[in-house]
Amino acid sequence: xxxxxxxxxxxxxxxxxxxxxxxxxxxxxxxxxxxxxxxxxxxxxxxxxxxxxxxxxxxxxxxxxxxxxxxxxxxxxxxxxxxxxxxxxxxxxxxxxxxxxxxxxxxxxxxxxxxxxxxxxxxxxxxxxxxxxxxxxxxxxxxxxxxxxxxxxxxxxxxxxxxxxxxxxxxxxxxxxxxxxxxxxxxxxxxxxxxxxxxxxxxxxxxxxxxxxxxxxxxxxxxxxxxxxxxxxxxxxxxxxxxxxxxxxxxxxxxxxxxxxxxxxxxxxxxxxxxxxxxxxxxxxxxxxxxxxxxxxxxxxxxxxxxxxxxxxxxxxxxxxxxxxxxxxxxxxxxxxxxxxxxxxxxxxxxxxxxxxxxxxxxxxxxxxxxxxxxxxxxxxxxxxxxxxxxxxxxxxxxxxxxxxxxxxxxxxxxxxxxxxxxxxxxxxxxxxxxxxxxxxxxxxxxxxxxxxxxxxxxxxxxxxxxxxxxxxxxxxxxxxxxxxxxxxxxxxxxxxxxxxxxxxxxxxxxxxxxxxxxxxxxxxxxxxxxxxxxxxxxxxxxxxxxxxxxxxxxxxxxxxxxxxxxxxx
Length: 570
Hints:
The chain is mainly alpha-helical. Helices cover 69% and strands 0% of the residues.
């Protein structure tokens, strides 16, 4: 059999069918005889653990910043005397998401190390701009830089991890990444709440710089991955699929801008919304046609979408990310508007979601590594998510705080399970040579879902507030009801009666609508999970990018260089 290094970037259909044929009819378990004879778990060197630490720190700072900003956002927009809260959040997601398909190509053309270091530098630059922003325009520009860097970090950490360990081993290490999400997600709201004061909120961004700098230094010194074969800069650029990336970046930005404006700044039927939405949709169609028919080096090889198991994984992570970001951004609104919680108190109230997500991501990763199964965990996750969202939709302004925390824990458990287990159905049907484009597209789908989660949920809340807020309260928003969700929140506790109770009830009703829409999305995730096949978790790595010094001398070279694509017969 040919080694992985001899396989092309777009493997023949036999490479895909070799795993499809391995699907169990009703069972995810892979008999021992179906796996390569070499052990899937190998000893690791000190260099491996140092590099893993650098990846963990890089991931931590990206997660921490995302959660911290969500809690402090009302104070930021108020301190800068604006009501454009949606753009502060959405610009970060739009830029980070639109560039993600390019990240996979960059890592293949120029190597993993330069790309992840460049992402960290962009992240630090964005933090410096945001922290020093004198007005909302500069803050939004800084968030664009920040988003580009964060997107690269999230994608590159997964890609480099795939170079370090096999898919069968990865459950345990993915669980470690889940722990990072738990710590970053738990500390983020507390940091954001503690710094959610006029001027002081700038330190939310400044604190990112030394942490990201430490991660960059560790990876600069210790990350030792093979460099791409010597090619001219022009050849590298040609391999980036400039046309395909331009189409997908333009389409992502156009659609994101349309849904950000829709129902908030302009009506859905307005030209300002319909024009970018149509342009984005047409660009997506053109991108798909170009990638499937004309591209020599496609940014997203269509082979990664050619089987139902991978497609199911992409749909599941989209829905889970949509739900998670909705709760992260709008649960603090519930606590601040309906429970008179301060920003830091609302961050504490969000800990149930954060630690449940991270904790069960760890347990799910360990269970996949131990049982070689991923379907039961994902099926259970959607049941828990739907139960939790259904309960959240029953909350009113007077519901006990403990009930809301318990309900969010249920959702967090389910989301954590999908976050940890969702990429196993994506990667199990694919050869290791497709790790980079598959993981880059995986992170792209997850990030694109966050744009929809923030903006669609924001529109739903705004529409309910427009119908239910007392006129005297609506008049307090700087631009009327266009962005009342965040601009009115700091004023609720100071309102006289009965306007105070009416405003709280309006927020509770609007958020109930948000949770119901999320519940419908969760039903889609459950249906998508039915499409999964039970496939073996392969034990090979992409020999082109196997990390040097990650395993004891002799062992790593043999595994990375001689690993064969295992053909499983049923």
